[in-house]
Every structure is written in structure tokens, then in C-alpha cells.
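Forwarding the complex inputs:
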Amino acid sequence: MSTLRERFNAVIHFKKPDILPWLENVYDETLVEWLQQGLPPEQVTVIDWEMGRGGTSLANMTTVKGFNPYPLFGCQSLYGSLLQVDIGPIPRFKQRLLKETDRHLEFITETGAIARRSKTGKYAWYNMPMFVEFPVKDRETWHKYRERLNPEDPRRYPKDWDSEGYIKSFEAYQDGNTMMRFNGFYGFGAEIMGIPTFNLMFYKNPELIHDMIEYWEYFTVETIRSAVETLRDRIDVVYWWEDFADRHGPCISPKLFREFFLPHYKRVIGFLVKNKIDRILMDSDGNINPILDLVAESGINGLWPLEVNSGMNAVEVRKKYGDKFFLIGNLDKSELAKGGQAMKKEVDSKVPVLKEKGGYIPGADHVIPVEMTLERFKEYAEYIKPMLVY
Amino acid sequence: MTDALESIVQAIAKLDSSDNAKALVTDALSQGFSATEIAEKGIRQGLQVVGEKYEANEYFLSELLYAGSLVGELFELLKPSMKDHQLERKGVIVLGTVKGDIHDLGKNIFKMLADSSGFEVHDLGVDVEPATFVAQVKEARPQMMGLSALLTTSLVEMKDTLDALRTARLKDNLKVLLGGNAVKKEFGTEIGADATALDAVEGLEICKGWTKK
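Prediction (whole assembly, two chains):
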């Protein structure tokens, strides 16, 4: 019988596993709802030993490290074992409250943006903040921000980096995939400049965009170099966060993608492939159909989440692109949350056919939302699990 | 259409530089075209072509934002030669993101396009209470209302806003358009909205259809 990691690796290389993996990612606030709906806390809480609260005491204490609900349902977390290389601004901006009204909180984030959050909403993260100001506005503010993006900063790597133990633990991990995650070229720009300004600058100040993208390529490669050259194919998959599309289509046109992004994708992916890391997953919500030819040309060969509400259909992508992409997700989360026939119809329309074609791992078409009740998720789990066996 | 106005249409449609487009507008003014003619047959026509290219998947968000920014600059240039009443108003829209939702990216793009296309837009901002929408409808007497929501948890507020309009007996003469990532067409039908738009350009076309004479 294969391990979960072996199954994942088989599928993303278009080989047949004994059992198809099933990957999900649950919002923390969905989990809180589920705990209130009867999910047994003792079965999902992860408690571990650590030296007194971050090294303040020599006494070893037990600490709640988080929650792991996935094994209880028979699925795995999308993220598996994540390599802890820090790609953020160092030093971080100090997160602090700037303004408070009876309905909103305005605060500066660790990446230097000013975000507004609703006080009246039931959920904190799930009611996503609205970003009202970004740290990079022009060339001058970009150069200032860039000072925090030094790839040589030793704080980017874990304290025990390079130790044999670290490498062995990465080798020994079998409960899912091993993953390295970083921001893509669009994701990085939109994060520090905001979507409207970043998109506008492709026309208003293309030299600035070229400069930013050029630097992000250098920063990415030099930051991950040590990890990539040390761990090589012990990293099963690279997860590239982009989020560059909405329901209409990509935020940037294929023409801009080719001119501004494509050469940089190719160089970063060339560096990864040279080090035997050949599975590159792109995370983008929205309708990415119009840009998929170029995504394939860049060397990216995996897609998640394939949002149904934006017109993505994994069966169609498989038909058009063959084995150019391994696919994860694409089960309409709102249909799954309805349960009953709606859930069954959605699962039946994709899982059996894609399972036979290979290179597909089922899962919801994004993170499991708070609308999905515990009962409905259990029903979905019971329905999908028998389908996973070959 | 004359060459001068057609050049403005083409400059916007091809996303020319701001300097070039401004020079074309200045040139048209010096040739004796009125600001109204330039706005209607040049600038707005150019924006219409950009919208068509967007719907045809030839242009995407970057192009739409740049065209909106360019058109805004051209209208600024025309302002001294133009009084507001000279431009035909296509209709009045009350717009806002519903209660509990503070996101406005899509709403702002719609506002920019609707404004540049000749609609009078009353933007109430984000996190808007149903009672505020009702009060604004009484005051501005719009033909249309645009409700936006990014979060699925805000969908209930769209229904509450529609219910509040019905209770105040304001819905019968008002077309309601829903937009935002959380909204599906089936949901719009379910709660009795008149239309649901996938994106800002589709929303604008729906409003144009409602006000077509």
C-alpha cells in the first residue's frame, strides 16, 4: 500500500496510484463553525511540546499548535509539509491599529498596506479586509520597499537550516506532499501596489513594471536557491500564488503576459527544473482559460483551484491540454455545500471521468467556506471516498 | 464621422498615450468641434469600442483601467469648454456595496465606466444599510440601482435591500442590477433583481439597454 505522498506524486506525474488522493483546505473560521456543530475537538487539535513559549523559559510545555481536521474525513491538506523560507519584507512592517469607528477597523498590515476590516461581521478573516492604501505607488516608493527584500538576509531561513535532521525530516514525511510556496509576478505586484494601480502601470509606467518584475525574479531565485539546491526533488511541488483573474478573465492580457511575465517565469522554472523540481502548481482564482496557452508555455504544469463560478471546467481543460497540466480541485464548493443530489451531481460529473484520464486530484474549487456545514462535509466525504479507489 | 473625431475614437480604442490623445482632442477643439460633439462622438465612442474589445476577450482589466483613466483625463481637458448641462444624461444610477461588505474594486470600475458613458451616478460607498439605499432613491429618483457584493455572506443583504425597496413601494419603477464576485445569475432571479452582471462592462451594457430610447 502506498503512502499519501507516493499517491500524490504518482498522480501529478500522470501515473496511476492505488488510491486517488483527495485534497482540501478548510478556512479556520469554517473549522470553528464545525467545532460548534459537534466536531470533536480532541480529534482535530494538534498539541505539541515546546520550550516555554518561544524560548522564554527552559521548561518544556505543551502548546496548541493548531488544528488538523483532514485525517478525520479521509482527505489531506492541500499544503502538506511546507518549506519555511520567508519571502516577505524583512523587517516586517509593525501591524497596528490606525483608526477605529463603530463599524470598521483600519490597520497597517505586516506587508505595509493599510487595510479596513468590518467590526460588525461575524467572521474576522472570512470577511476579507478591504485594502485602502498600498506601500508601493511609484518608483521612489518601490526602491524604498525593495530595501526590505534582501535575499541574503539570514532571517529568511529556519534556524537549523542545512542540518542533516532538517533534510531527513523532509525526506521522511509521508502524510502528504512536500511543498515550497512563493508569490508569482502578478501576485507580488498586486500585493504591494494594489490591483488597480499595478494593472494601470503596465500602460502608464511600463519601465517601472519591468524593473519590479526583474527584481522579483532575482529575489525569488536567490531567496530559494539554498533550499532548492539542498533539497532538490525532495520538494514534490512548487506552489506559485498568482490570483490574476476574475470571473471575466485574466486581469492582464495575453499580450502583456508574454511581454512582462513569460521570460521571467521561464528563467525561474528553468532554475527549478535544473534542480530536478519539475512540478509547478499555479494558484489562480477566476477564469484563466484565455491565458492557459501561455501558462503552459511558461513551464507551469499544475493548476488549482479551477473555479467553476468563473467558468473553469477541469474536464474541458484536460480535453484541450492533455497532460500539460495536472489538475486539483474544480468541484463547485457551492454545489458541494448544498449536499444531496446537487453535491452528487457535481462529484459525478467530474471525478469518475478525470480519475480515468489521470493527473487529477479531486477537491473543492477553493477553500471550504463557512456555508459548508459539518453534516454536509461528512456527506460529501462519505460519497467521494469510495470513488477514490482504483 | 469626421477624421478628427474618428482619430479620437481610434486613439482610445488602441490605448494610445495620454499625450497623443490629448493632442487629438485639442486639435478637434481648434477645428471648431464643440466639446459636446467631442465627448459624445469621440471619447464615449472610443470607450464603447474598448468595452466591446473587453467583452470579446481582446482586452482585459489592465486595458479597461487604462482606457478609463485616459477618458477621465480627456474629460478634464474638455471641462473648460463644456458646461454640464450640454451633455446628455443617459439615466440616473444609485450605486453601493451592501451592508456588511466593504469591497469596492468592481463597483468602482463600474462607476468609472458608467460616469464616462453619460450616466449620473450616486455612489453611496461600501457597507451601505438598506435604509440608506431607500433614502437615496427617494431623493435622487433614479431609474436604476446597482448593488455589489464580494462576500457570499453578504448575499442576504442584497435580498434585504430589495425587500426594503419593496416595503417602501419604490421597486416598481426601479431596475435593480446585481454585481460582484459572490453573485450568480440564479441568485439574482431568486431574489427578484432585474439583472445580474458578470462584470462591470456587462453591467454597463445592461444599463444602456434599460435606458435606450
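The longest helix of chain B spans residues 35-55.
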